[in-house]
Specification:
With about 475 residues, this protein is α/β, with parallel strands linked by helices. The chain is about 40% helix and about 20% strand. Bound molecules: nicotinamide-adenine-dinucleotide.
Length: about 475
């Protein structure tokens, strides 16, 4: 079986003690590769390499144009290796190949193109001051960035962190999720091929607590921690980072509300709502898992929604026609199905879906009549489970939507312009999509309110996090 190595200081590297773990294809439920298992030692070596590359190497000292050319070459290489990268993520986590080939890998290349250009073209403030002075801002690279990623959009979310960090002149240690190690090691090799100096992008594999992940968060040589994952993990990382006062940026869990008003275009609302909760088998932080539908259109919406949900094609994720893959691991499948088991006791009912048709699959599932206190209404399931609830008034819908500790995103479907703006403003969320879902402009702030995160990334928001802005104040005329 192949070995997926760490990538440290420009080299494929095993673990010192030879430790390994297996990565399992959730469709076949068989291990498909062995992975170097890193701990404190490997994380430390990767941080040391990144530190050297930052303190002594050319990367932070290059101009944006030169760095940008290397990042664009990396994007070219990602596109040239589309098939291999897409297959790596699909095999690791069971996401349909149509999504990894058609969306995730192209977006990963675009992440590098966007942030390379954004860094090169970003203006910095110049502030004319009274009294013969002026001030200006320098955005200097922050240093060594630890990027800790989840498994649900492996390469796409890793590059969402790595691209702005590199574009602003930092060096990086990336720890991919243990479930999805393969594409990260490929990416690091491509970066070297694109001309990135050794040590600028390092990858270390392993678990979180007591393993490579935790070691990165405790290392005082790390200057920034960018993390995407569960809110509970965010709490653990915040506590570890506090010891060194390391700044953190967290993109955490969600329990997205999706509000369908009676004046919505119902065809569009059904189609977007299906995508919002069932794409990637619901393993999406932004999933519209709480669906609130105005009573006048509730029955019609529900009928169409259930019909569309039942029409989604499960199958082998490597088959280009598959729309619904298995869940990412046996452990995650057990977690999602355990939530389904709580539905009757909590007062709800499942009208379609449930575990199956085989292996680690869960069918698109629709839960009705669940009270706001039900676990499926309050906790992030991270599976293909929509809880649908009727509402009567706009204020009731907003109150129900905001009744959650999370606040990553929400969706609003209405043809009433005033309502669209009013409700978007009233929702407690980092992103509100009106009459759409998942449409991104990488200049926009991305992040969450409450338990859904700390800080924002994207465009200038990424610049704020990955740089140390410095104010330079100059006297224009000699002063005593
Ligand atoms: P997770 O928190 O279990 O793991 C994420 C990463 O953190 C993994 O690499 C893991 O090894 C590492 N990790 C775990 N414990 C750690 C510790 N104590 N110290 C350092 N590293 C540690 O999350 P997951 O199951 O991989 O991903 C699913 C979660 O991610 C969901 O909650 C989802 O909503 C969230 N998510 C959020 C966004 C967003 O943009 N807000 C995007 C995707 C996923």
């Amino acid at each position: 079986m192949d070995l997926i190595p760490h990538f440290i200081d420009g080299q494929d590297t095993g673990s010192r003690d030879g430790a390994r773990f297996s990565t399992v294809d959730p469709f076949t439920q068989r291990p498909w590769a062995e992975v170097a298992l890193g701990g404190e030692e490997e994380a430390g070596l990767a941080v040391a390499a990144a530190r050297r590359a930052f303190d002594e190497g050319p990367w932070p000292r290059m101009g944006h144009t030169e760095r940008g050319e290397i990042l664009h070459r990396l994007a070219d290489l990602i596109e040239a290796n589309l098939d291999e990268l897409a297959l790596a993520d699909t095999t690791d986590m069971g996401k349909p190949i149509a999504d990894t080939r058609g969306k995730d890998v192209p977006r990963s290349a675009y992440n590098f193109r966007f942030f390379a250009d954004h860094a090169r073209l970003s203006p910095a403030e110049a502030l004319p001051m009274d009294g013969g002075h002026h001030a200006y801002t320098r955005y200097e690279p922050a240093g060594v960035v630890a990027a800790i990623a989840p498994w649900n959009f492996p390469l796409m979310l890793e590059t969402w962190k790595v691209a702005p960090a590199l574009a602003w002149g930092n060096t990086v240690v990336l720890k991919p999720a243990e479930q999805t190690p393969a594409s990260a090691s490929l990416l690091a090799r491509l970066a070297l091929e694109a001309g990135m100096p050794p040590g600028v992008l390092n990858v270390v594999h392993g678990y979180g607590p007591g393993s490579a992940g935790e070691a990165l968060t405790r290392d005082p040589r790390v200057d920034r921690i960018t993390f995407t994952g569960e809110s509970g993990t965010g709490r653990a990382i915040a506590a570890a980072a506090a010891a060194n006062l390391t700044p953190v940026s967290f993109e955490l869990g969600g329990k997205g509300a999706n509000l369908v008003f009676a004046d919505a275009d119902l065809d569009a609302a059904v189609s977007w709502s299906i995508k919002a909760i069932f794409s990637n088998a619901g393993q999406v932080c932004l999933a519209g898992s709480r669906l609130f539908v105005q009573r006048e259109v509730y029955d019609e919406f529900l009928e169409r929604f259930i019909t569309a949900a039942e029409a989604l094609r499960p199958g082998d994720p490597k088959d280009p026609g598959t729309q619904l893959g298995p869940l990412s691991s046996a452990e995650h499948h057990a977690k999602v199905t355990a939530y389904l088991d709580t539905v009757p006791a909590d007062g709800g009912k499942i009208v379609t879906g449930g575990a199956g048709p085989e292996g680690l699959f869960v069918r698109p599932t629709v839960v009705l009549d669940a009270p706001p206190t039900a676990r499926v209404c309050r906790e992030e399931i991270f599976g293909p489970v929509a809880v649908v609830t009727p509402f009567d008034t706009e204020s009731e819908a907003v109150a129900r939507a905001n009744d959650t500790p999370y606040g990553l995103n929400a969706m609003v479907f209405t043809e009433n312009l005033s309502r669209a703006h009013r409700v978007s403003a009233a929702l407690k969320a980092g992103t509100v999509w009106t009459n759409c879902f998942f449409v991104r402009d990488l200049r926009a702030p991305f992040g969450g309110v409450g338990d859904s995160g700390i800080g924002r990334e994207g465009g200038t928001f990424s610049r704020e996090f990955f740089t140390e802005p410095k104010a330079v104040v100059m006297a224009l005329t000699p002063t005593p």
